[in-house]
Design brief:
The complex is a heterodimer of chains A (156) and B (698). Chain A has 156 residues and is mainly beta. Chain A contains 2 helices and 11 strands. Chain A has a single domain, classed as OB fold (Dihydrolipoamide Acetyltransferase, E2P) (Beta Barrel), CATH 2.40.50. The longest helix of chain A is centred in the C-terminal third of the chain and has 6 residues, at 146-151. Chain A is globular, with a radius of gyration of 17 Å. In chain B, 49% of the residues lie in helices and 22% in strands. Classes of the chains: A mainly beta (156), B alpha+beta (698).
Chain lengths: 156, 698
């Protein structure tokens, strides 16, 4: 790619992330896994389901299981507000799975340079689903490793 | 003429004719004089031949033509029917089926000429009317012999082999050509062949194998193989030591000259056209080997065309035209209903009249959609007949193989099930039947000794019960010896001895469904390898069904297979537990009762109700489903009495909502570890309700 002066610009591949907040932290979800973002709707509880699954919802005629990231990460239980959203994630193995977030902020694009892969979250006892820390100006965004969030089998 | 577009029809019809032939030949065996049956058979064979000819499947046509000849002779009373002939005919049917399978996967009939079978048929004809069963025996056995006779002389060898023959001869060794015939019922042909080789190698060296030694090892040969051996020893001791190998029928051998093969080589060069002609009967002697070789040769060509394994035809359902007419009518009605709704919304009228007719139309629409759904389901439904009608033949074969006279009684073949279920139920059922035949039915001497009729009976009963189809497979055999199973379970370390002592009959029988658990004392090729009932169970559970066993020691075992009638849409009763809605399949509901709290009794600290002479255990759905605790107990309980087979249970719910048609949706893999909930459904208001699996509650 060249700019108007004919100087070659080295463009690093950018990955887009949806920035959401859960509690007072910001998390980034790789947009390629996101199918959809919907408002909160009626959740049907499923008895005897694994703890971190809140229940199931009706997504335009499809039954989609709903997971709580807060429960998964050992935070206090969700309180649903007007800003709460359900992000529908799509993976090969699991199909559609919804996760509840407190708020959806924005979409950002980060290059690999802007993500610090060494910084690991400290809550190692609660399971670590962070693959790195992204820097967007002054903001720090924890990049969620979606496949490990969805695939990990909860040891109860 | 391009006939590929008729391939689907051809395959469908051929399967039908094969089935009809198989059924009728079974009848013919019992009633050899029944002219109607013979005519029926003749017609089916004739159509088969005609169709195969039209489609250009020459080998299949050839085989069916010769079968037809036999039937024609039977019809004209020139040939008598006996079990030998029936055996040959069944073998022919198997061969035709093989053709059909090959056609299905490659749209080509393959290379197996089945000349051996055709020869058998013709010999039977030549043996003609006088051929008694005794006379038949040698005639039949002579068949492979005449074919294979001196085949070692006509072997066509490549140059290096011929050179080796000459070398051996020059070294002063004798050359012997031999043909070894293996017994027909031999199970491990390759192993027998190997023993033969070992026996020969004590005396000398095998210079030429036909089929190749690799093919022999892979069992890619019929019942004969040919060898050329060099040895310093005399011929007789070699033949004697080969004959000592068990299951070897006979050995033909004589001394040969290496030059004999030279000549052949030259002749071949002189007249290649002639040798090609000669090569035709060659594969006949060893069709299996030849087919295998040719297959590998054709393999390359086929893979060039694309995936050879992919079936060239799609799965189809043949639909009764009446069902389609009904469907069409309902769709017309649907359109009328839609038009009425449109006209109401367009009309100027307002008020009560409009709302009344609007309501009428909605009801009308509802009725149509229900009927429409039913019709569509019916289109997908096929009678289980298509699966079970191959079983009489299977039991007949097993009966001969096991030397146990037995009879299969089937009822309810017309019971219909969803096509997908029918397609997959065959193997589990077949397995259960084999189990009954092999383990269930005692040997005839034993049966006579304990005063049972000598012939065992196996039955297969299918019927509909609510939203389920029940298929019972049972026998009047020995039953399951729970003590033995218990001992085996302890021996295998599944339970400790103390635990085992406390297990109920049912729990012990459930061990049989464990992977790798086999009670057979010896492994036969019919059953006993321990990959059995667990596969049956998982197969049936994958279809949403379950299996139950009832067994009485000494008088038989019955397996009850329960399958859902439909997979997608059911009629359900909607109930409320606290503020959550649940669906219970209407088919499993017996009745609904209002029970005063005071009527609850206790048996072993469990709540029960006593209802019209029946003691029914109470199950509190709110406890089962971990619902929020109730603030205050009401005076009356709403109890939904559900049934599974003969068992009843009362489910306590807070409220009844009503009957509704629901579409079953899966919960998804993540929360699928839940036995009580079989799925979810989406209600009219968009809410999701869970479906309670009544079968899992018991």
């Amino acid at each position: 790619m060249t700019d108007e002066y004919g100087v070659e610009i080295v463009e690093q591949e950018k990955v887009q992330y949806i920035v959401v907040s859960i509690g007072n932290e910001q998390y980034g979800l790789d947009i390629s896994f996101v199918d959809n973002i919907v408002r909160m709707c009626k959740i049907t509880r499923v008895p005897k389901a694994p703890f971190h699954y809140i229940g199931i919802i009706n997504l335009r005629g499809e039954v989609v299981p709903l997971m709580s990231l807060r429960r998964k990460m050992g935070l206090e239980d969700d309180t649903f507000t007007d800003l709460s959203r359900i992000i529908i994630l799509k993976t090969e193995e699991q199909g559609l799975v919804g996760v509840v977030v407190d708020e959806v902020r924005e979409v950002i694009a980060l290059t690999e340079d802007e993500i610090d892969r060494n910084a690991q979250g400290s809550q190692s006892d609660k399971g670590n689903y962070i693959s790195g820390i992204g820097k967007n100006g002054e903001q720090l965004i924890s990049i969620l490793e979606i496949s490990s969030v969805l695939n990990e089998v909860e040891v109860s | 003429m391009d006939v590929s577009q008729y391939l689907d029809i051809f395959i469908d019809e051929t399967s039908e004719h094969i089935q009809s032939l198989s059924d009728n030949i079974m009848i013919l065996e019992k009633e050899p004089e029944n002219k109607d049956v013979i005519n029926e058979i003749f017609r089916a064979a004739h159509s088969l031949k005609g169709m195969a000819g039209t489609m250009g499947f020459k080998k299949m046509q050839h085989l069916t033509h010769d079968m037809e000849n036999v039937f024609s002779e039977i019809r004209n009373d020139n040939v008598k029917v006996n079990s030998k002939l029936i055996d040959i005919l069944f073998k022919c049917l198997d061969a035709i089926e093989e053709y059909l399978d090959t056609i299905k996967s490659t749209s080509n009939e393959g290379d197996n000429g089945n000349e051996a079978l055709i020869k058998l048929l013709n010999e039977y004809l030549e043996g003609g009317g006088e051929a008694t069963e005794a006379a038949q025996e040698p005639a039949e056995e002579a068949a492979p012999a005449t074919e294979g006779e001196k085949a070692y002389l006509s072997l066509e060898l490549d140059d290096p082999s011929i050179a080796r023959l000459h070398e051996a001869e020059d070294a002063g060794l004798h050359l012997y050509g031999m043909t070894v015939h293996i017994q027909k019922d031999c199970l491990l042909k390759a192993a027998r062949a190997f023993l033969v080789f070992k026996a020969i190698e004590d005396f000398g060296e095998i210079l030429v194998y036909n089929p190749s030694s690799q093919d022999i090892e892979d069992e890619k040969f019929d019942l004969t193989f040919h060898l050329i051996v060099s040895s310093a020893s005399e011929l007789d001791p070699i033949v004697a030591s080969i004959s000592e190998v068990s299951e070897i029928e006979k050995v033909e051998a004589e001394a040969v000259q290496a030059s004999a093969y030279d000549e052949k080589e030259e002749k071949k060069e002189e007249a290649p056209a002639q040798t090609q002609e000669k090569a035709v009967p060659e594969p006949a002697a060893k069709p299996a080997a030849a087919a295998a070789q040719q297959k590998s040769a054709n393999g390359n060509a086929a893979s060039g065309k694309g995936s050879a394994n992919k079936p060239v035809t799609s799965r189809t359902v043949r639909v009764d035209i009446e069902k389609l007419d009904a469907l069409m009518n309902q769709v017309s009605e649907l359109i009328i209903a839609k038009n009425s709704l449109v006209s109401i919304s367009d009309s100027e009228q307002s008020g009560d009249y409009a709302s009344q007719s609007f309501h009428d139309q909605i009801e009308y629409l509802e009725r149509i959609t229900t009927n429409l759904h039913e019709s569509v389901m019916k289109v997908r439904m096929v009678p289980i007949e298509s699966v079970v009608n191959k079983f009489p033949r299977m039991i007949r074969d097993l009966s001969r193989k096991l030397n146990k006279p037995m009879e299969l009684y089937m009822s309810g073949e017309e019971t219909e099930l969803d096509r997908t279920v029918v397609d997959q139920i065959g193997d589990p059922l077949q397995h259960l039947l084999r189990n009954s035949a092999d383990h269930g039915i005692e040997p005839p001497e034993e049966r006579v000794r304990i005063g049972k009729p000598e012939a065992g009976s196996i039955f297969l009963k299918a019927f509909q019960e609510g939203n389920n189809v029940i298929i019972e497979v049972g026998d009047d055999g020995a039953g399951i010896n729970t003590d033995k199973v218990r001992a085996k379970a302890v021996e295998r370390g599944l339970v400790s001895e103390e635990q085992a002592a406390n297990l109920s009959q049912k729990e012990i029988i459930d061990f049989l469904f464990n992977p790798g658990f086999s009670m057979a004392k010896q492994i036969t090729d019919i059953s006993g390898r321990g990959v059995g009932l667990d596969v049956v169970k998982s197969g049936i559970e994958a279809l949403g069904g379950d299996v139950d066993v009832k067994s009485t020691l000494g008088s038989g075992t019955t397996f009850t297979v329960r399958l859902p009638l439909t997979l997608a849409i059911i009629q359900a009763l909607m109930v409320e537990v606290r503020d959550e809605k649940y669906a219970i399949a209407l088919g499993s509901i017996q009745n609904i009762e209002d029970i005063p709290v005071g009527d609850i009794k206790y048996v072993q600290a469990e709540e029960v109700i006593h209802l019209r002479g029946l003691v029914i255990p109470l199950i509190r759905l709110d406890k089962l489903l971990d619902s929020a605790p109730k603030e205050e107990e009401s005076e009356n309980l709403t109890v939904v009495v559900v049934k599974k087979g003969d068992n009843l249970a009362g489910l306590v719910v807070d409220n009844l909502i009503g009957q509704q048609e629901i579409v079953i949706k899966s919960l998804g893999k993540c929360i699928d570890n839940n036995k009580i909930i079989s799925g979810a459904t989406i209600l009219g208001d968009g809410e999701v309700a869970l479906i309670i699996d009544v079968n899992a509650i018991f």
